[in-house]
Amino acid sequence: MASVPAEFLIGKIVSVIENEAALLGGARDDLEEIKRELVSMRSFLHDTDMRRPQTDVEKTWVADVRNLVYDVEDIIDEFMYLSNKRQGRHRSTRNLHNTIGFPKHLWKRRQISVRLQKLSSMIKAIPERNQRYRIDHSMEGKSSDDSGKGALHGESSLFIKDDELVGVEDERQLLVGWLTNGELQRTTISVVGMGGSGKTTLVAKAYNSETVKRHFDCYAWITVSQTYVIEDLFRSLIKQFYRATMEAAPMELSSMNYQQLVEMLVNYLESKRYVVVLDDVWTANLWSQIKVSLPNSRHGSRVMLTTRNESVASLSFEIGSHVHHIRPLSEIEAWALFCMKAFSRNGSKCPLELEILAKDIVEKCQGLPLAIVSLGGLLSAKSSSEWRMVGNSLNWELHNNQILQPVKSILLLSYNDLPYRLKHCFLYCCLFPEDYSIKRKRLIRLWMAEGFVEQVKGITPEEVAEGYLMELIRRSMLHAVERNSFGLPKACKMHDLLRELALSISEEQKFCAVHDEQRVGAREDGIARRLSVQALGKETRVYEGMSLLRAFFWFVDDALFLSSINTLASGFKLLRVLDLEDAPIEKLPNDIVTLFNLRYLNLKRTLVKELPKSIGRLHNLETLNIDDTNIKALPKGIVKLQNLRYLLARRLNPGLYNDFDYVSGIQVHLDISTLKNLQVLGCVESSGNMMKQVQSMTQLVRLELSNVKSSDETELCSAIQNMPFLCRLFVMASNHEILQMNALKSPPPGLRRLCLVGKLENIPGWFHSLESLRVLHLHWSSLENDPTSHLQALPNLRWLILVKAYEGRHLQFRQGFTNLEILELLNFPTLELITIAKGVMSGLKELCIGNCENLMMIPWGVKNLTNLQELTLMNASEQLTKRICAPSGVDHEVVQHIPKINNFCFTSTGWFQESLS
């Protein structure tokens, strides 16, 4: 996985050679030589990553080469830092080469030569050492595969006895039902989940049931694993089929070729009802290879497979298919299983003095059966004093305790199977605290800033990075905790045990370090390339050796940060990423502008009031996030940030969501139209010649404007008309002015999110063209006519938010809204009745009604919303809540199909919540 830094550095050096020739002086030849060495190093690291080195000798070589890659990166970045610093001092460019020259005191030619000699000798020594120590690489694939299979067999053998099974009976019956439901066509059943989630155990319980065995003429179970030979799988199938029917397998199997094996299987199975289990399928290629041997003779045959990869489970199997996503054990089930293993000698009852510790440990397992059983077995032999040590050193235990070896092996299989680019992206997620909800866009921008995202012709970096994230989710390495209206994850999390594994790998490979309550990741030698501070202690301080950090995260709400922030710029001079979201900081040090390497600066929800005037010196900056800060205006230097892609400056007033001015924009007193790489602009006040500037920013994909006046209509609509890539649009009228947007002839074809804030005279005529729109928010539109008739035909609308959008008494949803999933109706002071016709918005899942003081009954027709999962009321009238309260409420029967009904009331002491379910 260490080939990513090398690959990125090669691109960086090429760029330096081509674009910074005036700064190089005598270093140009040396940089050329470094580039050639890095190409060799990249090949070596990529090869060893693919082979997954098994010997200590080879691991040492990889570590040495990785350190040399980091050393080269440091030299280049320090050289560029000094060059940039001197360029800042000497503004004249006429004698730039003579003035700057080469920073001899930092990077002398002789020093480069010495380091290059070390690099060259390291690379050249690799084949010599291979010969000297006689490493047999032909055995590596075998040992890796064998270890993987052993771990998988270990997983299935953990649950042997029926009385030790917890939480699988309902799922077992579901699978048995699919296996024996009488459907004549061959059907494929996929069970998908992360490693250790109990997929094999569940399938084994269904496969081994007497009901299933009696139903089929023959059956076979094969473990596929990561590496397989298709002919060997065919031979295994034949042997098991013959064994199931108590027949002798053909003697000549070992000499048969692919075609002969397929013919034998087809002939044998053609007249039979069979069931096949393909356990641990890693790639979609397997099905295309094996399906030719499994005939569909309409006898009711079944194929079951287990996989960690959602892409495999969601394959088109051409005939019939079912997919079952295995769920983690519930809190009660997990506790029962743990007690069964940890306290078997105590009647499965947890001693009172261990209960708090035990529950903490079970919580870390997050419903993963393999981990619960393994840790329970480990702790069953521990004394009370040793329990806390295990809980606090789970990372160490995973890697050093043989009892937990199955857990480590299972999780490592998933990690090792990742493409090398995704390994960096996965490890990066462990920089966030345990159980942290990581926003998708934040993660994507961080990956881009770090150089992890490859350039693909015809595809934006954002799209490539989103592909990375979706692949990690499909592989169960991350799980989505919230999705948007497009089905994309809004946020994701790491399983606690996967995070522990990632932390261990990251520390070993010097990828990153975490300073939390269990570990002090920041070491004085500054080895880690990235640091995340998540807890404070007496050791927390900025070390001089940490000057080589490339990323710094702060997750502690503590005033101690104020004493160290001023050392950031001088101490972390090579930073690419500075993420201070929610940090208690009021002022940035002025010399932060010396961080020339900075790509990503996140100040979201800090108390910062202004940006440095010379922020333009951060010419490599790509992301500037000042959302929800106290910054009210941008400095003039912002126009010099020619690499800026994201300017996020919205100030949200959540307590005023029902009010008109729930969002504030930032003031811009300069021409930002020169920022030609800008993709996201939000949210800025429309003042001066802002509309003229926006007209030339045709590259924008997201635009947010506030303080828009009626007189801006022509220029605003012209600007929007000429933004072919625009996906998100937010327009907020100046207070007390009508929002005029009728001059827009047709909206951008890809517009997916639209928010209009301000009074509308009518629904603009171009609304009927919003074929891609997924989210629509009309805020304080104060329309005199019911707007639903203009919105009902929007084909892809998933989420509709109406806040004081209509002044009438009766809101009628008469037809359409075929794909609507979420409906929010807020702040309708005159509304008395809501009608939903039968068949309208039949897919609605969430309905929220708030601050409608004259609404005395729930919407008429809500009983027809059979897919409704949640009804939320906010400050509802007492009459309305009484009508739906059980058991005497007159409308209780109408809403009893809704699983979750909550009422929120704002009182003098804050919000009060009550369940009406």
TrEMBL record:
Residues 173-346 form the NB-ARC domain. Keywords: Nucleotide-binding, Plant defense, Repeat. Residues 567-881 form the Disease resistance R13L4/SHOC-2-like LRR domain. It comes from Hevea brasiliensis. CDD domains: RX-CC_like. This is Disease resistance protein RPM1-like. Residues 431-502 form the Disease resistance protein winged helix domain. Residues 7-93 form the Disease resistance N-terminal domain.
